[in-house]
Amino acid sequence: AQKITQTQPGMFVQEKEAVTLDCTYDTSDQSYGLFWYKQPSSGEMIFLIYQGSYDEQNATEGRYSLNFQKARKSANLVISASQLGDSAMYFCAMREGRGTDKLIFGTGTRLQVFP
Amino acid sequence: DAGITQSPRHKVTETGTPVTLRCHQTENHRYMYWYRQDPGHGLRLIHYSYGVKDTDKGEVSDGYSVSRSKTEDFLLTLESATSSQTSVYFCAISDVGGFVGNTEAFFGQGTRLTVV
Question: What is the predicted pLDDT for the residue at B102?
């Protein structure tokens, strides 16, 4: 069955440092997509980055990169040069490519950036 | 911003009453999803739709039903509301990608439902 696991309920990082948020997934499909979303305290869901199961290179979007290790079924988010505004909940998600495109989320990691 | 609207944004209802939440989109996206968000549980999928009249259950579908009679509207109904259904409900939409899953989902602003 499709499953997303985020084992870090909370993380702390000092401003300007890098931080890695862990995500592992389970699926029997060969075709799937992995996503990271940010949810600040205001509540909206903000898309950060996408990685396809057939992508050979790790995805990057500005200060965000996705460390994709397919054999280990992990898709960790790396935030470089953390900023105070990065304090938020971060969710990992997976979408299966069976035509129904079921999209499920992990339980999230609360990141707090301190000066 | 993607055109997606949830209504109502806030609702207080009594145990045992039926409640319908509406998700309306103006993007003509194929896929629509309903989630509930609770502390410690993240976003849990309730039901989703992959086309008009094509819906399927998510991981927490008990006590909920959905309908999608046209592309732009996806309704979530709590048949008989219970206190355990007090939550924040999010609707999301997504288009068909050129390859599997390579289009992100866009979210509504959420509906805060309190069952007393």
Answer: 66
